[in-house]
Each structure stands twice: as C-alpha cells, then as structure tokens.
Amino acid sequence: MSTPPAGAPEKTVPASVTTPVASAKPPAGLPSPTTAAKPASTAPPLAPLKSSVEGEGWKPLPKKLKIFGNLVTEVVNKGLCMYCGACIASCPIDILFHSDKEEPIMRGTCAACQVCYYSCPRIELPLAEVEERIFGRARRPEEAILGIHIGTYSVRAKDPEILKRAQDGGAGTAFLLYALDNKLVDYALVSGFSAYDPWRPEPRAARTREDLLESAGSRYTPGGQVGGLADVAIPNRGGVNFEEDKIAVVGLPCELQGMWRMNTHWIATPKLARNVVFTIGLFCSKVFDYEKMMVDYVQGKRGIDLRTVTHVNVKKNRLLIRVGDKLVIDEPVEAIGAAAREECNACIDYSAELADLAIGAIGSPAGWTTVLTRTPRGEEILKSAEETGYVEVKPLSPVDKGVKFLERLCLKKRQRDPSAYMRRTTAFPKPEPTLVNVELPMKTPA
Ligand SMILES: Cc1cc2nc3c(=O)[nH]c(=O)nc-3n(C[C@H](O)[C@H](O)[C@H](O)COP(=O)(O)OP(=O)(O)OC[C@H]3O[C@@H](n4cnc5c(N)ncnc54)[C@H](O)[C@@H]3O)c2cc1C
Ligand code: SF4
Ligand code: SF4
Ligand code: SF4
Fold first, then answer.
1. Nearest Cα residue to 68 out of 111, 25, 129, 17
2. CB of 298 closer than 6 A to ligand 4?
3. Hey, where are the domains in the chain?
C-alpha cells in the first residue's frame, strides 16, 4: 500500500508535496522520518504502568453515527459540496434527491445507515489509496502534476455530426460511440438536460448515437452526475438492468472522486460502481451556479432566451455563448465571476486524475481534444477507436501550448487548499478493532 497524501498541505507548497506521489512522506499526523542520527536516549527508565482504562481492558473507540444530517452540516453548509451526486446514488432506501439548489436533499425518514456520509469525497479522500485501487500502483515522481498516465494525445472525431455538436474535437462522444457500437458498454452515463429548465444539466443514460449527440458539448454548471448511478441500483428508477448492464461514466474530476469514494470506502456502496467498465473525466477549473449564471445573467441581464442557446463555452478566460451560428456573448469570464461556486476553491484536480481517459481543450489546437490515457484500458479504447475509424489521433505537443501548458494549469490548481477533504482525521475507523492504548505492567525482576 502506498503512503497517503499529507493531510493539511499549506496553500503554496509545491505540487510534489500536495499530491499523492509515491514518496516517503508519512501520513498526516505522523512524525517525519529523519535521516539525522538520533542522540542517545536520555529519558529516565519507564515507571511501572497501569491500564489507562482501569478494569475495562481493550475497548473499541466509541462510534458516533454519521448520517445525512452530518453531511449537510460538515459539507453542504460549509460550502464544500460540489454536487457530485455520490450520496444521492448511494442511499439504499432512495430518500436522497437532486435539488434545484444543486445540492442533495432528503425526502423521507433516514435509516441512519451512514452510507451517504461515507460515500462523500468531501468527508475524506485518501487519494493515494484510491489511486492504488484504480491503477494498481502509486504515482511516479514524474507524474506528480499530470497524475498517472500512459499517453498524451490530440484527438478529433471523424464523424462530422459529432464534430458539429461537440465542445472541442468530439473525442469524448466518439469514444463513447465506439464503446456502444462495439458492445463494450450497454450505456454511457453522460450529462443530459433537464426537461424543465433549459441548460440545467442532469445525468442521462445514453444508449444510442442520437442520445450521445444530444448530450455532447459542455455545461458549465454541475449536474449531480454520479447520482445517475441510482438508476442502476434502484429498481423503480429506470430501465437499467443492474445485474448485467455495463456502463461508461463521463464526469468532472470531482464527480469521479465521488464515484471512486463510493466504490472504495468499506462502509459505502461499492456495488454501484461494479458495472462501470471505464470512465472519461473532463479537465476542469471551476463551475458556476445555474441560477446565477444561466438564469440571472445570460437570460436576465443579457436578455437571451435560454431555449435558443445552442453552445456555451468558457475559453481563454472568455464567456462565449452562441445562438445558432451567432456569437451573442463574447466577454471576459469575470462577468459571471459572482456565480462561481465556492466548493471549487478546495479542488486541486484539473486534469481528471481518476479517469481512464482524461479529456479537455487545453494543450491542443482549436477543434481538437487533448486526451490523457491513464489506464491500459483507456489506452486500448483510444487505439481501437483510431483503428476502427472513429477518431484521428496525433501526439500532443510536448512543449509550448501542449503538455507544458497543461502542466502549468494543473500546477496552478494545486495551489488551492484541499485540506478540508485531503485529511485522515474524520475517517471512520477501519474494520479492525481500534483499541484504547493499554500499557502492560512491567515484569518484576526475579
Ligand atoms: C464545467 C466544465 C469545465 C471545464 N473546464 C475546462 C478547462 O478548464 N480546461 C479544459 O481544457 N477543458 C475544460 N472542460 C472540458 C471541455 O469543455 C470539453 O468537455 C473537453 O475538451 C472535451 O471535448 P470533446 O469535444 O471531446 O467532448 P464532447 O464530445 O463534447 O463530450 C463531452 C462530454 O461531457 C459531458 N458533459 C458535458 N457537461 C458536463 C458536465 N457539466 N458534467 C459532466 N459531464 C458533462 C457530455 O455529456 C459529453 O458526454 C470543462 C468542461 C466542463 C463541463
Ligand atoms: S444513506 Fe443512510 S444515512 Fe444517508 S440518508 Fe440514506 S438512510 Fe439516511
Ligand atoms: S457526496 Fe457529493 S453531492 Fe453528496 S454531499 Fe458530498 S460532495 Fe455533495
Ligand atoms: S473545480 Fe473541482 S470541484 Fe469544481 S467543478 Fe471542477 S472538478 Fe468539481
């Protein structure tokens, strides 16, 4: 097992310190090993000791129930909830739902099972352990900034319809289409649109090329994506066969964190991710509040009917909104600065470090998608999609606007403060009994 990341890294420490690189760093709270020779001990000989819990002996730590109310107090009310949807998907009695305020809400009586609390990546995210589970190894020092990866590419879909509807080079949609056509998966969990509020994202199970085309492009507000896995687990929610269906999941870095937290914590719900064959993660620097960005600003202040908007982009620090072929907003992104969501201030993952395939615009020429293959499966999907004519692929430039540029943005994001969740103090004790420190009486010399 690799060593976990430091628990409360300072804001400006170098990335090699804030990232879960395979290093000799001890877990937070433990003293650093030192190479300096220790001075000879001058401590007095130990006095005979007594049990610290006289008469009780070994005793497990008291376990305090942590339920949805605790999640609200410790995450939602503290501005840490990034609306990944993991808690919503994980509730075994299906009483957690998506809300218009882009946070989970409860409708019903809680069974106090604690599953939602321990599914939340903002309660704790032991990244090094999670990476060990996903990749089977720890990061190498040279992967400190970009995360574990195999290849870096610029990719473009060959299907002209995908290119027309996609955000950049359409690699995301093309990979999913390749996987559906070749029966690698039965459906892809993508970001669709609410039937009631135009441009409000919500999870969608895409089964066909048409479904994928309708969900292509980016929404810059969160949609509780992982909550879509509830369709898998909860029989009355949708037409998905939990036992058999194979799934691909697309999500923002924090949404994949939610999925993996849910999948790796022993008290959470690993079964929900059991059928996930591969994941596509989107690069991300921040999201915005739907009401403030789309309703109050784009529709309210700028008078653009959201039902007519065809494309939304945030690129090179500009907000770009199209209605058909017409660019109706092209202005500094500061115009919607007040709509930026607070929880992103604690996020250090720019390049979707927990995905099989990480995709974004940065690093590639316009009209192409930058792709990092992080697992052998991700690499295989890219190569097979290329061989079968779904995408064209070229190496990502190692300099200039390529890898170096991407690294700079990743590094910049590392300077945010993740100590609110990259910690180990609130973790539920592991299944092994956790014991009160009981000292044994010393043997009386004969
Ligand atoms: C909120 C947000 C912030 C981003 N920030 C950056 C950035 O800073 N730098 C950068 O290089 N790239 C960023 N991207 C990624 C970029 O916008 C493109 O998604 C990426 O380049 C892939 O393009 P594509 O044409 O290959 O994808 P497409 O073929 O268009 O496929 C995109 C896929 O993403 C899904 N999707 C769209 N919106 C969401 C959402 N809100 N949540 C979950 N899934 C969604 C779609 O359903 C679709 O399956 C961001 C994306 C989002 C949604
Ligand atoms: S997951 Fe368990 S603790 Fe959380 S809301 Fe559902 S029943 Fe309550
Ligand atoms: S699991 Fe995700 S949606 Fe639920 S409280 Fe945590 S961050 Fe928010
Ligand atoms: S910046 Fe981080 S927390 Fe915010 S939406 Fe992007 S991945 Fe999620």
1. 111
2. no
3. 126-287+341-414
